[in-house]
Design a protein that fits this description.
By secondary structure, this protein is of the alpha/beta class. The N and C termini lie far apart (about 50 Å). The longest helix is centred in the last third of the chain and has 14 residues. Strands 5, 6, 7, 8, 9, 10, 11 and 12 form an 8-stranded mixed beta sheet that branches. A 4-stranded antiparallel beta sheet has the order 1-2-3-4. The protein is built from 7 helices and 12 strands. Helices cover about 25% and strands about 30% of the residues. Belongs to the methyltransferase superfamily. METTL23 family.
Length: about 250
């Protein structure tokens, strides 16, 4: 059984693979005639949140792809990786990537590894997969390598975990001077906000324009977004005087 999703360039395919509702979803990224990257993501439509590629992920993945020349050698951590599309794209662009998800959800971590293997990335060799707990500074957090960039797609999906995420990000940015946190966020309620939490933990968010994202690959992001409102933001530390700290 084969399904087709038009994207304005080549296409994004969904290929049914098993009778257990698992399928492989394909995402195509392109640039010059010689540049084409196809990422295969295993999905379980009837599984938990982390087994499905939510609309925020391809938006962030295309943002990274269009900056692929700057990613080589960069040390990148993805929070709440889920199916890990953005992190896998970064790894394919020769970044040194650590994919993470909840340390008490071994099936989610196993699914991340499966996504890596579907794209010829060997966990522990070509890419790392680590269990983390947001808000808890466990040994796994202290064992993380130095970072240049932290990324996440749709990690702010539940207000009950907002502060845990912000605490984790604040800690990682403090340990990695000059690092940034870039993430996509799906607007689900006008009442949800992290502004007060950012101020509390001495962080500042700046919007990033999404106007040109996807154009290089001939992709219309509105099709990925499916009618949802999605934002792309960058978070950095601020000093005691409220100045953004980039060093």
């Amino acid at each position: 059984m084969r399904f087709h999703m038009k994207s304005g360039s080549e296409e994004n395919d969904i290929v049914a693979a098993t009778a257990t509702a698992e399928h492989i979803r394909k995402f195509v990224f392109s640039g010059s005639p010689a540049e084409r990257l196809e990422i295969k993501i295993p999905e379980l439509l009837q599984g938990a949140y982390s087994f499905y590629t939510w609309p925020c992920a391809p938006v962030l993945a295309h943002f990274l792809w269009e900056r692929r020349q700057t990613l080589a050698g960069k040390r990148i951590l993805e929070l709440g990786s889920g199916t890990a599309l953005p992190g896998i794209v970064a790894a394919k662009c020769r970044a040194q990537v650590v994919l993470t998800d909840n340390c008490i959800l071994p099936k989610s971590l196993a699914h991340i590894r499966k996504s890596c293997q579907a794209n010829q990335l060997q966990p522990g060799v070509d890419i790392d997969v680590v269990g983390l707990s947001w808000g808890l500074l466990l040994n796994s957090v202290f064992r993380l390598p130095p970072l240049d960039l932290i990324i996440a797609a749709d990690c702010f999906y539940d207000p009950s975990v907002f502060e845990d995420i912000v605490v984790t990000v604040a800690f990682l940015l403090e340990r990695n001077a000059g690092a940034k946190f870039i993430f996509t966020y799906q607007e689900r309620s006008a009442d949800w906000s992290i502004e007060a939490l950012l101020k509390k933990w001495k962080l500042q968010a700046l919007p990033i324009s999404m106007d040109d994202i996807g154009k290089e690959s001939g992709v219309d992001l509105l099709e990925f977004m499916g009618g949802h409102t999605i934002h792309l933001l960058e978070i950095m530390r601020v000093d005691s005087e409220g100045t953004i700290n980039t060093t």
